[in-house]
Amino acid sequence: MLKRWIIRTRALATEGNPLEDKLIVISGKRIESILPASAARRFSGKAFISGQRYLVFPGLVDIHCHGGGGVDVHSLGGLLATSYFHASHGTSALLLTIFFEGLKELTRMAELIREARPLAPLRLLGLHLEGPYINPEIRGAIPHETLRNIRTPDVRKLVDAACGELKMVTIAPEVPGAEGAIKAFREAGVVVAMGHSLATTNEARAGVDWGANSVTHLGNAMRPFHQRDPGLVGTALTEQRLMAEIVADGNHLAPETLNMFFRAKVGDLILVSDCRWVGGMPEGEHQQGTREKLLVQNGVARRPDGTLAGAIHPLWKGVTTMAALPEVSIFAAVRMATRNPAKLLGKKNLGRISVGGRMDLILAGPDYSLRRVFVGGEEVFRAANEPPLPV
């Protein structure tokens, strides 16, 4: 017999305005129904998950995440540990972001994703390859040795090496051969994001015409905005064919910048964590075997030379950072981390709450603190003062 649980809500995230004072009926690992609060008398008190009412959101969808939890994602144990780290902070689907380390390593990572998928506490969506076709002058923390000049035949080899797991790639539209590469990736069904780029406005627009449909961490690792040549930033904010990622961790972008981006592109703005393997680690220097040394300092990760190397927080941090802005509601912020990334990936049933859908739910308090997280019907996080689930 399937377990039935009832969740009381203060407000429930929907496609439109939030629904207030509802009950969510859970049967097994699925959402059976959504009822008015007055229906509570129909159920036994033993079936209710706690006596309090929650803000309820769909599980988050992170399309740009390198790792977290202080482990190496290049092993099965490390990838599973990273998955749990993010799942326990509200992420229910993740696109693992990696740098290019050769075709054999790309194949190995694709096979690792497939091996980990049935074991992971969240949905592993595949791979996001950041590079190798980016501008070396603005590579940020991406190792120079992972970059390659574009040869269009190599794009097919790269796609084939990923064994169907390559879902997204970041490319600079101004590098020689970008046109052929972008078109080849799009023909293979891969989302193309422009980033790590010094593209002029004309070069960015050309990238869109060739098929690019997103921008990687808007405002970071790209030509600064100029009033007469706004470059990739201006193109992202005004081009309706483009969606755009932002890292809203309180460090990568100023509050004023976040507000400007939100006003310009709310429906097509995607929150990402850009979390590195040092996510969740204390301040100080950390070494990942022989691979990399990073410094966690003042809320970000940096390389030994001081170069910004990514974020250290799961995606929920971006949601709460956006929700703290005067004009952004918690529901608008959640949408940027759920429906918008799902839209980019073409996943209609991802990042939403629906009758018959999976129980991928975040239960939060009125202060937006995480109280419980469910992924696929399994409780992966419960705050210390929350009661156990009904038996």
Mind explaining what this structure looks like?
With 391 residues, the chain is an alpha/beta fold. The protein has two domains: 85 residues, Urease, subunit C, domain 1, CATH 2.30.40.10; 286 residues, Metal-dependent hydrolases (TIM Barrel, Alpha-Beta Barrel). Helix content is 25%, strand content 27%. The protein contains ten helices and 20 strands. Strands 1, 2, 3, 4, 5, 18, 19 and 20 form an eight-stranded mixed β-sheet that branches. Strands 6-7-8-9-10-11-12-13 form an eight-stranded parallel β-sheet, with helices on both faces. The chain has a four-stranded antiparallel β-sheet with strand order 14-15-16-17, with no helix packed on it. A hairpin with a 2-residue loop joins strand 19 and strand 20. The radius of gyration is 21 Å and the shape is globular. 49% of the residues are buried. The model has no long low-confidence stretch (mean pLDDT 95).
